[in-house]
Specification:
Number of domains: 2
CATH superfamily of the largest domain: MetI-like
Order of helices and strands: HEEHHHHHHHHHHH
CATH class of the largest domain: Mainly Alpha
Distance between the termini: 44 Å
Shape: globular
Strand content: under 5%
Helix content: over 70%
CATH architecture of the largest domain: Orthogonal Bundle
Radius of gyration: 23 Å
Oligomer: single chain
CATH topology of the largest domain: MetI-like fold
């Protein structure tokens, strides 16, 4: 009886701690987003309102322009990644490529290294030498400070995710369907375009969503390659927080959060457990 009570207390504490870690920062963002005046030692804002919302979303605001640039870069990055990910994912997912397990392993390792690199960048600035070298190379070829250069940096990140998910989408399709189309006279290209590709479209849409969100939230690569000519929403949030404009930074963070939540709900619909199981 005592052991069961102790287990319930432990479980409740863990769930409460997890809820605090997830919803605590969100609550803080929401609080700062409606704050007009708040300073120490007051525990709550002194003045509430939507004053800074109107400043963020007015037509002449830098935030509106940065949002448009972020959406443009994210859309171009999705197109670039899918142009490479669809044929690569088809070749890997349909098991028609020699060394398929090795290729999937390399993609997984690259994805893990990308996550570790992001975590290390947040904690140790010496790892930013990677982006210093990229910025130097882009400056030599004239891509530094251009949207094309920023898209290339984002595409390097997104391509690993796009190929991995595209391979899973194509692997989940029964190859007999494509063979049936071939048997009734369809060419190899037509069977792929009319049978395989439409069936893989939900997974490809999920892949595009992941790449879009990764590009929309990307900061470090944009900072070293795009600044000062290319300004995106994460850069605006970073600049506002450094300047002490926590209200604008909080509003910008919430704006970035909206597409992430919305698209993740769509991903839950497009990528089911059966599709994910086909990755291996």
């Amino acid at each position: 009886m005592r052991a069961a009570f102790g287990w319930r207390v432990l479980r409740g504490s863990l769930l409460g701690g997890l809820a605090f870690v997830i919803f605590g920062p969100l609550a803080n963002l929401a609080l700062w987003a409606v704050t007009i005046q708040w300073y120490y030692p007051h525990k709550l804002p002194l003045t509430w309102g939507f004053k800074y919302w109107s400043e963020v979303f007015k037509p002449t605001s830098d935030t509106v322009a940065a949002l448009g640039t972020s959406l443009l870069i994210a859309c171009i990055t999705v197109v670039v990644c899918l142009l490479f990910a669809v044929p690569a994912g088809y070749a890997v997912g349909r098991k028609r490529l020699p060394g398929r397990p090795l290729i999937l392993l390399i993609l997984l390792i690259l994805l893990i290294l990308l996550i570790l690199l992001i975590l290390l960048i947040l904690q140790a600035f010496p790892n930013l030498t990677v982006y210093f070298n990229i910025a130097r190379l882009f400056y030599m070829v004239g891509l530094n400070g251009t949207i094309a250069g920023v898209v290339l940096v984002h595409a390097v990140h997104g391509l690993v995710i796009a190929v991995w998910i595209a391979a899973a989408a194509f692997a989940a399709i029964d190859p007999e369907l494509e063979l049936a189309a071939r048997n009734i006279g369809a060419s190899a290209l037509r069977s792929v375009l009319t049978v395989t590709l439409p069936l893989a479209m939900p997974g490809l849409m999920a892949s595009a969503i992941f790449v879009f969100l990764e590009s929309l939230d990307e900061f470090t690569g944009t900072y070293f390659v795009g600044v000062p000519d290319v300004s995106t929403l994460p850069l605006v949030m970073f600049t506002a927080s450094l300047a002490g404009n926590y209200q604008i930074a909080a509003i910008t963070a919430l704006v970035l959060l909206v597409p992430s939540v919305g698209f993740m709900l769509l991903i839950e619909r497009f990528l089911n457990a059966q599709t994910l199981a086909k990755i291996g």
